[in-house]
Amino acid sequence: MPRLSIRAVLAVLLLAAAAGGGYLLRDRLARPAPREIPAAQAPAASTLAEALQGSFVGVAEHVRPAVVHVGTIQRAKARRGPAAPPGTDDPFLRDFFNQFFGSEGPDSRSEFRRPGLGSGVIIDKRGLVLTNFHVVKGADEILIRLADKREYRGQILGTDPKTDLAVVRFHPDHELTVARLGNSDALHVGEWAIAIGNPFGLDQTVTVGVISATGRSDVGVATYENFIQTDASINPGNSGGPLVNLKGEIIGINTAIVAAGQGIGFAIPINMVKRVVEQLVDKGKVVRGWIGVGLQPLSAELAQSLAVPGKGGAVVSSTIAGSPAAQAGLQQGDVILTYDKTPVEDYRHVQRLVAETRVGKSVILEVLRKKQKLGVTVTIAEVPDDVPRRPGAQLPRQESR
């Protein structure tokens, strides 16, 4: 091959190699470099999840030993069938009659035993268990079963139907794990909430959710309502069990659910529980304040017509003759703005404030009357037993039996 031809071939090959290298280099430069995830980023997320999981596990291990199974028995005489007609002395005819109408005769002592189920939490080493009133209502026998399966007979120490709370006592023969009570006034919506109890008899069940709302009233469960709402799963048998925060503190006592919905449960705030339990343990009953006034909500229309500043307040709809409210001069149409310097949110708020005030104490109500503010001094009396309960919305269902 001539030298010129060889040189031409070499030149072509060099140009082709240069072009191929250029394409490869351009492709390498145009392709984005793989993004490297910092080594600490993945472990950080894993560590956070493990820490949260560890918190749940720690709370369950700490609180579950203080949660008990509350079993109840109600005894009732079985309904006696009609007496056998004359002429049925024959044993065959008598057996035939009893098969369809039940046992008969004055000596029949058949008894019906209706079981009930709920939860409770130990709040004192002396064997004091906190639960719901509706769990033990009408019970002839109460069985307390601890987390370690030991069983004891329980006795009702005190009940408060108006808040649906009860204290049951049993006599322990060993050291008990006692739950630590928290501060429900410090709760924030969105905080974690853990429910522990015995749904459907499944002892020591733990479910997790959040605080969905606070200060729920008009639920229709109790006379005095200020519920914590949660989406932690609550089912039949959870009633009386604790609602717990991530510190392992009891922040509420589970009491009811909305039967028509899912993830809507209610718990009694532990600060309300503390005030009730203290009186139940000391006196066996709860003494509440009363002023004898009927209240109604302050609607937007009423607030505008009465020239109420702000959105808070409660309208006086009536007073009971001879009651502290009547004696103090409260009148129909008055709007209560503050209670002993505490701004009033609504009529339920006034109801709770009065109930929690010591009997015999004098408080000053700031009242708006005919667009003028004035102070009214009322002396708190003890609530009579025959005061009718205002009906609420019958939405939730209490879960126990």
Task: Write structural notes for this entry.
The protein is an alpha+beta fold and 401 residues long. Among the domains are: 180-285, Thrombin, subunit H, CATH 2.40.10; 289-382, PDZ domain (Pdz3 Domain, Roll). The chain has helices at 3-30, 41-63, 91-101, 133-136, 270-283, 300-305, 324-328, 347-355, and strands at residues 67-77, 111-124, 128-131, 141-145, 151-153, 155-160, 165-169, 180-181, 192-197, 205-216, 227-230, 242-244, 249-258, 265-269, 289-290, 293-296, 314-319, 335-339, 342-343, 362-369, 372-379, 381-382, 396-398. The radius of gyration is 35 Å and the shape is globular. The chain starts with a helix and ends with a strand. The model is unreliable at 388-397 (pLDDT under 50).
Summarize the structure.
This protein has eight helices and 23 strands. It is of the alpha+beta class.
| Annotated CATH topology of the domain at 180-285 | Thrombin, subunit H
SS element count, helices: 8
What amount of the residues lies in strands?
25-35%
Q: Please tell me how large the radius of gyration is.
A: 35 Å
* Envelope shape: globular
Largest sheet: 7 strands, antiparallel
End-to-end C-alpha gap:
107 Å
Strand-pairing-aware structural class: alpha+beta
